[in-house]
UniProtKB/TrEMBL annotation:
This is Uncharacterized protein. It comes from Coccomyxa viridis. Gene3D superfamilies: FAS1 domain. It comes from the Eukaryota.
Length: 175
């Protein structure tokens, strides 16, 4: 998977039509794509998931991408300082993200022989890992269906209502 040379000042565009990059990534972004010495784990949410969330919030994807919450939201998708393969992500373990005091919990289906995996934001619906273990200059990249938004950021995205976001499955959002 080809990643952009820089992660700063990117417009709202897909990475090979699968994962979204967002403009205004802060200079303190903990896992810069251009630094080949950086090791981190990045959960990249699909374009369709961001578009569905933007639509649910009554915004265009362009307007959503301009939200001042987006740089903070991007930090939430990074487990800094360690590049983890899906086999190293442990079921039920909450991993500290680059967003201070926020965690992502990995959930594995014990009854599914194909090894279905989810990432669950704090107090929010889980996202399905649809592609795993992509090697990148930054470490390991996993593609997620469903927006990863911790409960603490929901009011900032929604203006206070609704208090929760919908669950995203294979199709459209569900409540």
């Amino acid at each position: 998977m080809a990643l952009p040379n820089k992660c700063r000042d990117l417009s709202l565009q897909p990475l090979n039509r699968r994962a979204l990059t967002v403009q205004r990534v802060p200079s303190s972004y903990p896992c810069p794509v251009e630094d080949s010495n950086t090791n981190c784990t990045l959960f990249a949410v699909t374009d369709a998931s961001w578009e569905a969330l933007a639509s649910y919030l009554g915004m265009s994807i362009s307007r959503f991408g301009q939200s001042p919450v987006i740089p903070t939201l991007m930090l939430y998708q990074v487990i800094p300082s360690i590049a983890l393969n899906s086999s190293q992500l442990l079921d039920g373990v909450s991993y500290s993200t680059a967003l201070q005091n926020e965690y992502l919990t990995v959930l594995k289906s014990p009854t599914d022989p194909s090894g279905t995996m989810y990432v669950k934001p704090t107090g929010a619906p889980k996202g399905l890992l649809i592609e795993r273990d992509i090697s990148a200059a930054l470490g390991k990249l996993h593609i997620v269906r469903g927006p990863l938004v911790p409960a603490s950021l929901v009011p900032l995205l929604t203006g206070g209502t609704p208090s929760e976001l919908p669950i995203y499955g294979l199709g459209s959002p569900q409540h």
